Amino acid sequence: MEKQIKKIIGVDIGGTTIKFALMDTQGKIEKKWSIPTNISEKGKFIPNEICSSIRSSINKDTLVEIKGIGIGVPGAISSDGEIVVQAVNLDWEQIPLKKMITHKLGMDACLLNDANAAALGEMWRGAAHGRENLLFVTLGTGVGGGIILNGRVLNGCHSAGGEIGHIPIRSDENRLCGCGGRNCLETFASANGLVLSMRKKLELLGGSWTEITPPIIFEKAAQNDEAAKEVLNEFVTVLAQALAGIMNTIDVEEIIIGGGLSEAGAYLLDPLKEKLEKYVFPQIRNHFSLKKALLGNDAGIYGAAYSYLLKKAV
Fold it and tell me: PANTHER family of this UniProt entry (predicted)?
């Protein structure tokens, strides 16, 4: 790793907020800040606003010490790391973001998918510290993922590596996914999928709740509500079967669960680990760990910055 790299910047572009962090090469954050994501006019102002925010938030003496910037983007990145192929939430297609940032800031930049950035962040400074082979899963409004093998992100030939939320699930239902497919994993194993399953179950039983949210479902299951327990069991089964399929393919040492649903803690992780042990290949059984992510919303900025260090270490 190049010793002259003294400071780096991590940027995590989200649909509503862009997060920034200035840190040293060991991951010690010196400053964090954020700005709203301006998605007007197909997000054309975002690159300029990223650069302006960096220049206005970091003094000139510090700016000259910064050798590079890593940027996590909510979308697919070209195999050469130069172009945002598509980022639906930003209304971006074929945006040469690396070139734009490098030109405006006068410093090197690298791009990666935001879920991959979060995976790298958890490996570098989070729950998977010290590991080099892991599966990172985000369970939020959708299901995202990142796969790291031998310390490197698996991006794939078409920038679709780690898109575990779109594993097809066998079901008698016909749930439409945001990708245009039917019965993708995230239509069942996301927060939205869980709520939909609970609603369908209550309709089938002729019951109703004042409000249906994932925390309420977990709470009612803990109180021995049979409908909630059944729905959660189906939820965990579908998720475990999908993750076991990945584990049996890539044979990593650790699974890290992040996203809003991970806040359920042991109520999610314990039954998920139990079912995973049932479905994984015998040689893997009892030889992997399942952990909750540690970095929360900071995972992306850590991972984006670390991706730059990895790039320069090649």
Answer: BIFUNCTIONAL UDP-N-ACETYLGLUCOSAMINE 2-EPIMERASE_N-ACETYLMANNOSAMINE KINASE (PTHR18964:SF149), ROK (REPRESSOR, ORF, KINASE) FAMILY (PTHR18964)
- Listed in order, strand segments (DSSP E) in the chain are 7-13, 17-24, 29-36, 66-73, 76-77, 84-87, 92-95, 108-113, 134-139, 143-149, 152-153, 254-258, 289-292
Summarised one tens digit per residue, pLDDT across range 70-96 is 999 988 898 888 999 988 889 999 999
The span from the CA of 9 to the CA of 67, in Å, is 9
Tokens of 33: 């800040």
Cβ of 161: how many Cβ atoms within 10 Å? 19
Q: Using one digit for the tens of pLDDT, what is the confidence trace for 213-255?
A: 999 999 999 999 999 999 999 999 999 999 999 999 999 999 9
Three-state DSSP state, 33:
strand
Q: Which domains does the chain have, with CATH numbers?
A: 7-121+297-313 (3.30.420.40), 131-293 (3.30.420.40)
CA-based nearest residue to 118, from 94, 99, 95, 134: 134
Q: How far apart are CA 182 and CA 179, in angstroms?
A: 9
